[in-house]
Amino acid sequence: MGSTVAIVLFLAAFVSSGHSLQCMQCTGFSDTPCTGSLRDCPSISDVCGTMVIRTRGHRWTSFNYIRSCVNISECSNNASVTGLYTTTATATTCCFTNNCTTSIPILPVENYTLNGLACPSYVETLMEPCDIKNVSACTGDQIRCVRYSASTTLGSTSSDLFFGGCATENTCAVESSSIKGDGISVEIKRKCYNGAGSLDSGPMFYSLPVILGLLKFVFAM
Asked: CA–CA separation, 61 vs 73, rounded Å?
């Protein structure tokens, strides 16, 4: 309830006046806060956000800690995705004044109990596959299947990523998002659907949440 009230007050104070915020922007590769420079948000519907991303592979775990301008629809949006090689969890918190500091995001609790859903699973860097041979068994509250396509620029290196797997409902909640921080830019398309038999159904969404968690994997390929 408190976060909802804060969002309403922000919309009343800033969006109606046409003013955008100034927010800290930085990117760190750990689970501890980063610091950077103050930047003007590109949209009046942007707020100051902090995103923590944890990605687990077979024998490794990596973190991203990102502070930037985010669309207000991203606030308090915790989600997780399981794919062919990784499981990624993300949490986002927001604040609504110039150069504010958000609360530290708390990642969703991991649940490895199989829930009976299986989703086509892949990670590709050239194009989205037509013939998907692998399937991931979904766990916990990952009750949707998801397909991503993302264009990422990290420093002077650009990469495309195509990803499929299991997702929580919150993963599909945001219709559009992107991020531009110090040395990083990401734009994403995503399609969520209910199961392996529904690959061509469901609306198309655009969102950020878990792709940044795959950066370590993608740029290492």
From this structure: 28
First and final C-alpha spacing in the chain: 43
Give the tens place of pLDDT for each residue, 193-215: 886 543 333 333 333 444 444 44
Rounded CA separation 77/221 (Å): 29
- State the pLDDT at residue 44: 81
Give the model confidence (pLDDT) of 25-66 as tens digits: 998 888 899 999 999 988 887 899 999 999 998 889 999 899
User: What are 165's strand-pairing partners?
Assistant: 146
- Provide the pLDDT confidence category of residue 175 given band limits of 50, 70 and 90: low
Query: CB 140: neighbour CB atoms within 10 A?
Result: 17
Per the DSSP assignment, residues forming a β-bridge with 186 are: 152, 179
3-state DSSP of the chain: CHHHHHHHHHHHHHHCCCCCCEEEEEEECCCCCCCCEEEECCCCCEEEEEEEEEEECCCCEEEEEEEEEEEHHHCCCCEEEECCCCEEEEEEEEECCCCCCCCCCCCCCCCCCEEEEEEECEEECCCCCCCCCCEEEEECCCCEEEEEEEEEEECCEEEEEEEEEEECHHHHCCCCCEEEECCEEEEEEEEEECCCCCCCCCCEECCCCCHHHHHHHHHHC
Residues in CB range of 59: below 8 A, 6 or more apart: none
The single residue listed with the structure tokens 């950066």 is 215
Contact indicator for 62, 29 with CB cutoff of 8 Å? yes
